[in-house]
Amino acid sequence: MLHNKTNNKGPQQNVITNDSLALSESAMQQLNAEEIEILQKIEQQNRLLEADKKSLKSVSSEGGHSESRRSSNGSASPTSMHSAGNDTNSNQSNDTDNKTWNLWGKIVNNWNDYQKKNGKQLKEMIRMGIPHHFRGLAWQHLCNAHCSTFKEKYSELLRQNSPSEKLIRRDIARTYPEQEFFKDKDGIGQEVLFNVIKAYSLVDREVGYCQGSAFIVGLLLMQMPEEEAFAVFVCLMKEYRLRELFKPSMAELGLCMYQLENMLQEQAPDLFTHFQAQGFHNSMFASPWFLTFATTFDLNLASRVLDVFISEGMEIIFRLSLALLLSSEKELLAMDMEGMLKLITKDLPNFYNKDPNLLFQRAFALVKYNPKKVKRLEKEYMTMRNKEQEEQVEMRRLRTENRLLRQRLDELEAENGSPQHSETFIMHLQQQLVQAKLQEAEAASTIVELQDKLCDLREKNRELVDQSKVTSLQEELIAVKMREAESNLSMKELAHKLHQLEDNWQKHMSRMANSRRTTLTSSKQHKVALQELQEEVLSARFRETKLSAELAEGRHRIMELETANQVCNSQLRRSDEDRCLHKERSRVAVDNERVLRQELNEVSARLAHTESK
């Protein structure tokens, strides 16, 4: 929707006259009833403002010329920069302005659709300059400030107190002092400028208030009411990273200077070498440039710079900066430092104020801008800055240490300057020397005593028998002897049984021999065979019994060997435990000896230090 508020508006030089609102019939047909009503209200407000004695006539009303309102500073038409003395040129300018007015009216009314469908064309049109009457709305759309919540917060912020109010009051008189809107002390211009800056100092307490920000706010107030100007300014500071330039550390400004210097070195090495030879650093002239050239160019060109800045970002600042330098490279190479400073800060801005289109043409034709290289330069700068910060921390530490040493040296020199104090100091040192020698003698005596105790403990460890281990060994010995007695008893029983079997066997054999002699018949021979089989069975049983006895004896032998093995293992285990115990005690003794030796060395060192004094 076409929109142009004038309440609390920056410069009343932006007032729309009846002639400027005389749109063509086709344009009026494209506007709806609500938009026509708004235009009528704007027309009425403009009449009231024109009747106000404090209102400005025109932004560029220099030399008494009364140019057309539509061809004022914000116009994108090149013919608006010339005098209105020639009627033909004036008519052509009016025709061009009417076309531009109609086109931008359509764009502002259908911003989102037009931006999606004709983004590149819109970008080129912004580079050519946004018409003054649509600039406020276009800026809000470009940075999405038209839907910002800060508009609602603005009135609430004004009711709060800011710690920077005194500084703001002191500095606002220096902001655009040549403009009627900001010239009067306690006037409406200075009041709205104070309100916007104060509100932002409450929103962003880290940055607070910085003097350079007032020029950007003033430029915004010349295009829109204070609520909208505040929303756009907050967006510029946060989304476009302008707040980084205003931080106390100035790290972002240093980064921009570093990037500009490297880009100049790449695109104009001769000029860069000349700057270095003259000691002409870019910080001497380029610092205001990164604040959107608000203090470098006049309002017309500064507004056009802000047009492209809001559209494309910091790239346009680098392009314009390099264009200023590259376009005047030959002149700069022939000048000294004072001449270069005058040319860059005064002559070039005055020249391009008359022909802004030429500056933008050169910015996009002469300057090569590579976003990837700019990003790489940023990484290089951050690495270099981190290294410098580490070096600064180390330097501060060394300076602090040096200061403390100097203070100590001064104190010692002051103390040594008095003879009486010198004698007292010498006596004190002698007392310290005597005490150190006594401590050394005591330490040596303690070391000897501890060494003797260590030797005694080692001897006792060799002779010492663990009573608990002796008891366990005795119990094991008793158990082994009991098992041995049981085995012997079993052996005796088996031997007795074997002896009885042998006797029975002999008796049986003798009976069998007698019976064979008496047996004569065949039936008796059969019995003899049976008896022989029984004898073989008895012989087998006898052999079985004998083998059982041998097996029992073998088991007994195995038991004896296992017992002997257990005894050996117990002895080995006890030996290992004794060895570990002795090793641990030896280690403790060695540690004690080392600690004592360290104490002795420290005492010796203190004694030597005392003697050296």
From TrEMBL:
Compositional bias of kind Low complexity: 71-95
Coiled coil: 374-415
Keywords attached to this entry: Coiled coil, GTPase activation, Phosphoprotein
Pfam families, A to Z: RabGAP-TBC
Protein's UniProt keywords contain Coiled coil: yes
InterPro entries: Rab-GAP-TBC_dom (IPR000195), Rab-GAP_TBC_sf (IPR035969), Rab_GAP_TBC_domain (IPR050302)
Domain Rab-GAP TBC: 129-313
Listed GO MF terms: GTPase activator activity; small GTPase binding
Region (Disordered): 54-98
Domain of life: Eukaryota
PANTHER family on file: RAB GTPASE-ACTIVATING PROTEIN 1-LIKE, RAB-GAP TBC DOMAIN-CONTAINING PROTEIN
Protein name per the record: Rab-GAP TBC domain-containing protein
Organism listed in the record: Ciona intestinalis (Transparent sea squirt)
